[in-house]
Structure formats: C-alpha cells, structure tokens
Amino acid sequence: MGDFIVSTPRDKTFDAKARPAEWMAGLAKGLAIIEMFDGVRYTLTSAEAARHIGISRATARRCLLTLAELGYVERDADQYFKPSARLIRLSRGYTKPTSFTEAAQSMLDSMRDTLEDPVSITMLENDESVFVARAETSRVVTTGVKVGGRLPIYCSATGRVLISDLPIERAKAKLADNDRVRRTPKTCTELPALLERIDAVRHDGIAISDEEIELGMRAMAAPIRDTAGAVVAALSVSTSSARVSVEAMRARYQPVLLAQAMKLSDLWQTFERPGK
C-alpha cells in the first residue's frame, strides 16, 4: 500500500538527555513504529519493531498495544499488527490514496486465511454482481470466477445483498428484468420468493446462496456501506457444501463476515470524497 510511504529518520536514539526538555520519547517511539508501515511492510510484530528502531521488545509491545487501543493498528490472533482504517484515513492528508480494492486486499487475504475459503468483494453493474477484488485459496470450491467475473443478482448471495438496499419496487423491477434461469434444482427463480429472501437480507444483514449458482457450492455475503449507510459493495465467502453446512456457515463464518464487512465499510468511507 502506498498510503504509508513517509520519510523515516535514521536516528534510533530515544535518550531524552540528548533531546530538548519538551522531548516525549514515548511519542517518538510510537511514530517510529507507525513509519515502519512503509508501503512494503504491512504487518508487524513487536520483535520486528524492537529490532528495527532499537528499543526493547517489551517497550515495542507496549507501544503497539497503545496504538491498538487508540484504534491506529489492529492485532490478529497470531500477534501480528497492521494499520487500521483510522490510520489510513490520517495518511490521506499526506499521500495520494490507493484504490479501495487495493487497500482492501490485505483484509481479504486475512479473512481467507482465517476461514480457509475464498473471499471476494463485488459491486453492482448493469444488474449483475461484478467481482472487483478476490482472495483465492488452493482448495477448489468455486466456479473459477476471477476479478471482472459476473454473477446474476437473483441467485447469488452478493447480488441479493447489492439490491437489498433498493426500494422494493426498484428491486422488484431489477429482478423482473433478469433472465431468471434455473441454474440448478435449488435455484430460486420465482419473484415472490426472491423478494422474501431479499427482505430477509434487510433484516438479517446477510444473504446465503445454497447451491443456487452451482451444485456443491455455498456462499454467504454481507453489505459494505458508505457514510450514508447505503450498500456500495458486498463481501462474500464461498465454500463446499460437502465440507461446510449452512448451520456451520452461520455459526463460524457469519461472525467473521459481518465483522470484516464493518471494517471494509470503514475503509470505503476513507476513500469517499466530500460531496459524493
């Protein structure tokens, strides 16, 4: 990510005696750690921070935990720290922001590693759900879609999320205009039933496509929202129906999906321009 390319001072001395009376060593250490997210490094451990800026590991850990408490970095289960959306937002005043999808890729990679299944971001275009970012997995569970690939809105989890925010009549019109082909025996094509499923998305905050796109594949999606609360994209995870039941998806995947969708909503909002 290019958001963190800044000039890093090479003086690793944090001795207050060598500084002015107003010198705050703790602040200097915290800023030195932030500067380590330099566009090449995106994750960081306390040991790496300590080694790079010449402080003890315990001090580096306290700095990172303080930054995490303030919301400037996030920590995962493996004790890796990474920039938060809040830090990205601050960096925009200094550097030109990268695209949303570029900034989101590391979040998708992390979610893919957690769930061990491919995850994607899609957007609505010409009444289709278009893949704009994706984190693949070595496990073969999907239809082979890639960035730029498209899915119909009526039977895909992402499509149902993307139109769930529309007024009922507009959503109904989009579904009516779709060529609602029964892709599998489980594909829902009837307009009243589809409207019920979209209403459930509005209520539950998630959509599930259970072997409606392809037999053997399940997908779950959640909305990514802008500052006004409008749905601008959908975050999804797909998996094998033989490996993961719908109940297991709700129990294990849904909390992760919703949490990451909220973070991606925050990230999206950092890229919005005033007046848009």
Automatic annotation (TrEMBL):
UniProt-recorded Gene Ontology molecular function terms? DNA binding; DNA-binding transcription factor activity
User: Coiled-coil ranges per the record?
Assistant: none
GO biological process terms on file? negative regulation of DNA-templated transcription
PROSITE patterns xrefs: HTH_ICLR (PS51077), ICLR_ED (PS51078)
- Where the record annotates domain IclR-ED, the positions are 86-270
- Give start and end of each HTH iclR-type domain: 24-85
Keyword flag Transcription regulation:
yes
| UniProt cross-references to Pfam families, sorted A to Z | HTH_IclR (PF09339), IclR_C (PF01614)
Query: Which keywords describe this protein according to UniProt?
Result: DNA-binding, Transcription, Transcription regulation
Q: Answer yes or no on keyword Ubl conjugation.
A: no
The molecule here is called IclR family transcriptional regulator
